[in-house]
Specification:
Strands 20, 21, 25, 26, 27, 28, 31, 32, 33 and 34 form a ten-stranded mixed beta sheet that branches. Strands 2, 4, 5, 6, 7 and 8 form a six-stranded mixed beta sheet that branches. Strands 13-12-16-10-19-22 form a six-stranded antiparallel beta sheet. Among the domains are: 103 residues, Immunoglobulin-like; 197 residues, Galactose-binding domain-like (Jelly Rolls), CATH 2.60.120.260; 110 residues, Jelly Rolls (Sandwich), CATH 2.60.120.260; 77 residues, Sandwich (Maltose phosphorylase, domain 3). It is an alpha+beta fold and 875 residues long. The chain is built from 14 helices and 45 strands. The chain starts with a strand and ends in a 23-residue tail after the last strand.
Amino acid sequence: MSLRVSGLRADHHREPLGLGTGTPRLSWRVETAAADWVQSAYEIAVRDADGAESTSGRVASAEQVLVPWPAAALASRERRLVRVRIWGVGADEPSPWSEELAVEAGLLDTGDWTAAMVGPPPQPLDADGPAVLLRRAFELPSDVVEARLYVTAYGVYEIELNGRTVGDHVLAPGWTSYHHRLRYQTYDVTGHLTEGANAVGAWLADGWYRGRLGFGGGRRAVYGERTGLLAQLEVRCADGSTHVIGTDDRWRSASGPITATGLYDGERYDARLERPGWSSPGFDDAGWNPVEALPFDPARLVAPDGPPVRRTEVLRPVAVSTAPSGATLLDFGQNITGRLRIRVQGPAGATVTLRHAEVLQDGELYTRPLRQAAARDEYVLRGGGAETWEPRFTVHGFRYAEVTGTASAEDVEAVVCHTDMTRTGWFECDDPLLNRLHDNVVWSLRGNFLDVPTDCPQRDERLGWTGDLAVFAPTASFLYDCAGLLTSWLADLAAEQQEIGTVPFYVPWLELLGPAQPAAVWGDVAVVGPDVLHERFGDTGILRAQYPSMKAWVDQVAALAGEHRLWDTGFQFGDWLDPAAPADQPAAARTDPHLVATAAHADSARRLAAIAALLGEEADHARYTAHATAVAEAFSDEFVTPSGRLASDAQTAYALALTAGLLAKEEQRERAGHRLAELVRVDGYHVSTGFAGTPLICDALSSVGADDTAYHLLLQRECPSWLYPITMGATTMWERWDSLLPDGRVNPGDMTSFNHYAFGAVADWLHRRVAGLAPAAPGYRRVTVRPRPGGGLTRAAATHDSPYGRIAVAWRRADGRLDVDVTLPPGVTATVELPSGAPAEIGSGHHAFSCPFRDAGDDPSPVPVVHPFAPPTNG
């Protein structure tokens, strides 16, 4: 039997260099052709730099995801090689050893840092600042054996050694709650250095640290008025000597060719101001300014939990047109987050101007939805030959670009930028509109997972709104390995929460409209986020790390609800962006915001009770279980009639009550289910829910056996619906269902984004209910395969690269039968529940099933639209 261990990894890192822990957890996958294979034991061997190896010995365990570190903890800078072998049930002989994985710790103690935070002279604060250059020359006595560069910044940076760029990160070190946590990066720069003369240089710009952030004009210098660089280069030479070249008073600073750069307004680059050779040895920096030391606390430094932002794709224009104004317009065919790269040639001083927007109107670039984000880049040519340029320290959300100046359309391409997560989930069916919908969800995730999970990537906002992530986390966790990014973001959430006393509306927090205050669904991400990461990635560690934050949130809301257990005080977003809400009152939903708040609180308390039990916190388990029960009873007393009608006779109210288990009696659930289906029909199968209800509506219908109604809702093409934007050419999810009106004009509202992932949360239902692939145990160790075809679809499939390996479910139907194929990796089991027949329990390998099936959607008649005033019928 062929058996091998593959995919060995440390925690959630694809590149385990500069780890922030000395005891990284280990995961691996198993490859074997044997059906129903189950691991019975493993052995982990750890080898140090001297070749000494220690092993765990044979450990009787089926665990293979986030297994505890088996050896002495790594010290700062220490590198070890790890390998694994495994035994199957009943096997006497193990598998071959896996390939070795090199893991290396970063700087784990504050005392490891000898460098100082240094910066250029103060810069004006009334506009986007320039990118300043910093440099230092140094000598090495012999060949370099090993070199590491540890670096971070107040602002954003790019590092060069001997004229070569180090790494491929974009907007490093990223955006964290800087006054609590500042990430540093570790680079292997052994190949960048040489014996003798060397030089290190850095570009340093405002970024999130000092640049403008937020809407309504935003704020500048949220974290500080001075940009700074902290860099520590550690070199070991062939002669046995070691050298530390850190930022200190020997560094020099000067202006460079980037004369202004900001995340919202764009970048201006004057190539005539370039300083050739500035980051190479031998450059004369006598005229440069001395740097100044800045206050800095190394206790804030943390290593990354996940991958950096990178350039992930390059797109060419799919169409070129001339606007009525005479401007050249490029259409890249896809709404993205990133920037343009141009190749130009012309006289010195000629300027190329690049403007960006998501949509056109009247044949022109339409920038009003950007509000106070100029999204404008300028390049001034040096002259004398071909020149290539891409902005360094800005990104834009756009599909269309206007190019004026000497650049021609064939010399412009779009560079996609986002956190470089691994894609893990796919969905496909025979309806091209649904496939496009799913693609749009993926693109909106890519556009908004730019170091933090933002609401939108284009206008003067781009904040880590908690409500968006609360509803979208399950979808995101299926589509991409976002565990590292969200682990970091949740750590910031906990830090902000502890300081300001509540979970703010967005993380990192900056005050724009007033002090932070608690709001349901938004604040509930403190519980929902870790719970989803545990469910989808099998990470119990995130639960333990966030446990104080989860408790603080639930306890705070419990105190606000008081003895009557109803959260009916204070501001609430409620069912934000209900389609019936006036454009200028997005919180004016059909569902009572206090009903939404109380339901969300009950759900968080229930989740927290289960988490407490998992963590062995028995007293908390009992307390939160009792509290969740009491809140559910209070909800029922206040909002539910004995027959199952809700005080807010709206779809979101029923969806919340059904999915959160707030209807105690079966007859109440049945009546509520009937009423929900009734309301969907009365509303003409149009989406009639906002942020709180839209992620739940299809699941709520499925939970009461109304899959056909859910499919009618899903496949509606008239606005408001999921497919209406597709019919209007959307390539990402929209903030409003009618961001583009049927006449092709942009919604006149002030809050109109064409790249918002929240309403894409329906993709999780596509994965679980349409394709039929749902997690049933943490990390997909067990799955439920329960496809429920409908809507006239004849085939669908979902694939997910789980922590254990690839899981695939595909079905097709024809001639009155449903055929289902299931593939499971070793370590995963499944319960298969087809529309008819008894459930089946299966293990790893490929399995095929079939059953009789006929879809109500086979009726070719169009989706019925019921007039809102027509008498309702029973569902």
